[in-house]
Amino acid sequence: MQITIKVSNLNQGYGKNIVLHDINLSVKSGEILGLIGPSGAGKTRLVSTIMGMLTPKKGEVFVLGKKMPNRKILGKIGYMAQTDALYTTLTARENLNFFGSMQGISKTNLKKTIPQAAGIVNLNADLDKYVKDYSGGMKRRLSLAIALVSDPEILVLDEPTVGIDPELRQQILQELHQEAKQGKTILLTTHVMEDAEQSDQLMMIRNGVAIAQGTPGQLIKDYHVNTVEEVFLKAGRLQDENSSNH
Amino acid sequence: MRILAIIKRVLREMIRDKRTLALMFVAPIFILSLMYFLFQSNNNQTATLGVRNIDSVLVTAVKNDHLKIHKITSTSSAKKVIRQKDYAGVLSQSGDKLTLTLQNSDQSKSAIIKQSLQAAQIKLRGEAAATAIKAQQKAIKKLSTALTTIVKQTRMPIKAPAMSKPKTASVNYSLKTHYLYGNINSTFFDTLLPIMIGFVVFFFVFLISGIALLRERTTGTLYRLLATPVKKGEIITGYLAGYGIFALIQTFIIVAFTMYAFKIQILGNLWNVFIINILMAIVALTMGLFISSFASSEFQMVQFIPLVVIPQIFFSGIIPIDQIVSWLRPVANIMPLYYGATAMSNVIEKGFTFTQILPQLGILVLFALLFLFLNTVSMNKYRQV
């Protein structure tokens, strides 16, 4: 398995504010990396930097062997934003068609991939409805389908399971494992600990610093606790103690 | 291919938004019809009149506060003199025949000249009558009836035909009037219309495209769009083409409506009208997209109208630029609408050709390029490559 995402010594911020401190991570193809942390910790900013929407302040980001930012690499990344960025006056199919062609997928290919992607999120029956008539959960699922529609090598999912009912959530997580088995790299952010436990690798971010990193099993062992949630709480306490010592 | 997909999406969104469509196509017709009926009268200002071989008595009689008189010595044709010196009219005399040639691109100036001439003739006739003996009382009676008809005419100077011919006075001039542009029925509306054709397209495209991009920013679709390999230039080109199509349809409807409903004659080539409006739409679009990056809601976008759009109306030629206080005049040079409206007026009223309006078109292109550049810069906020 080869390394598909590599971040080294990354500092990120705006102006003189540093929002992310010294982030290092690497993800191999076929792996799911879960980024967990409270809101405002810098998860989304890290994701944006990995996608090349932001240029690193310091350090480097490589995706599929190419230094980011790189516009062309974006064609190989399927992205699901935290907020549903959808055209509400269009139907779901029109949204999928539009974003698919923005990713550079041909019309004939889209005819095949749209039912596939919609099938994963159970939207095939509602494809020709207007998005403005969709419920919050349906919109979330459509956003995920848009990320999947180009069959990308890398999936970057910002809070993919928010607002999705438990049954479908399980189904989606299973599907993500399936995609990873086929050699895809998946990066997802979450603040749901159950989702995090299902990741192959975990990275806990708090106040812009990576406070713990490793496989869920290894982390639980290292911190002498029973769940991922306790790892997070303990790592957070340790961070506070360290910073108050300064 | 991406550009095509963006154009398709823009068109689809527009077509589904019936109210916006109605605003774009029905509102201009409503506004223009309203103006057609509102601006049937003229206002007061100063006109320059060139005179050639005119009796000095008549010149003194014609003089008034609203008229500047220049003596012409050259023998070139009146129309040529008007074009060269930009006089509102030229009056020449041979024997007792007067020939008045009016520029008529500003109908209020034409009206001033016509009124002054009427007044002068009444004055001269009055003096002649005073020196006449009582036996001519009959003639005076006739004169007074002539006077009342003239007074009636001065109230509606547009409809006043060539000067009435006094029959009894000793100073007996006959007047023939020629028009350089337009005709005897031209009103202020004719001056206003070319400006409005340009303005309506400018305003609606500015507002609708600005709000459309603003919505893309606030709903996050712009960010999502930039998370694909699409080039920023492709997004803007897609927008330009999509809204350009609507601007073209809008121009077509307005022009067709004004030609058939108001019987406005367009002296220049109709294609030039379309070219100007397409350029205006592109400037409005790029400007709207750029301005929208300073607004965080639709309401804030609307707040830019008094700041960005309304001042442009003032400098578009509705108030002739040479009547604006001199220190304020240069402001017109930074108003895209000024160039568009000038070119439009020249094409519609004076029949200018493509090469004659080229300077204005060139400046509009420069405006578009400037805003295009600023747009790509402002999108860097979302994606830095």
What attributes characterize this protein structure?
heterodimer; A: 246 residues; alpha/beta; six-stranded mixed beta sheet; four-stranded antiparallel beta sheet; 10 strands; B: 385 residues; five-stranded mixed beta sheet; 15 helices; 5 strands
Describe this protein's structure.
The complex is a heterodimer of chains A (246) and B (385). Chain A is 38% helix and 26% strand. With 246 residues, chain A is α/β, with parallel strands linked by helices. In chain A, a hairpin with a 2-residue loop joins β4 and β5. In chain A, α3 (107-120) crosses α4 (136-148). Chain A is globular. The termini of chain A are far apart. The model of chain A has no long low-confidence stretch (mean pLDDT 90). With 385 residues, chain B is of the alpha/beta class. Chain B contains 15 helices and five strands. A five-stranded mixed beta sheet of chain B has the order 2-1-3-4-5. Chain B is elongated, with a radius of gyration of 27 Å. The two termini of chain B are 20 Å apart. In chain B, 41% of the residues are buried.
Whole-number radius of gyration of chain A?
18 Å
In the predicted model, the low-confidence regions of chain B spanning at least 5 consecutive residues are 156-170
Counting helices, strands and paired strands, the structural category of chain B is alpha/beta
Q: What overall geometry of chain B do the principal axes of the alpha carbons give?
A: elongated
Distance between the termini of chain B: 20 Å
Say how many strands of chain B there are.
5
pLDDT under 50 segments of chain A (min length 5)?
Answer: none
Number of DSSP-assigned strands of chain A: 10
Net shape of chain A: globular
Elements of chain B, N to C (H/E)? HHHEHEHEEHHEHHHHHHHH
List the helices and strands and how they pair.
The complex is a heterodimer of chains A (246) and B (385).
Chain A: E1 3-14, E2 17-28, E3 32-36, H1 43-51, E4 58-63, E5 66-67, E6 77-80, H2 92-102, H3 107-120, H4 136-148, E7 154-158, H5 166-181, E8 185-190, H6 193-197, E9 201-206, E10 209-214, H7 216-222, H8 228-245
Helix pairs in contact in A: 3-4
Chain B: H1 2-16, H2 18-25, H3 27-38, E1 47-52, H4 56-62, E2 67-71, H5 78-85, E3 89-94, E4 97-102, H6 107-131, H7 137-155, E5 174-179, H8 188-219, H9 221-226, H10 232-261, H11 270-292, H12 298-303, H13 305-318, H14 336-350, H15 354-379
Parallel strand pairs in B: 1-2, 1-3, 4-5
Antiparallel strand pairs in B: 3-4
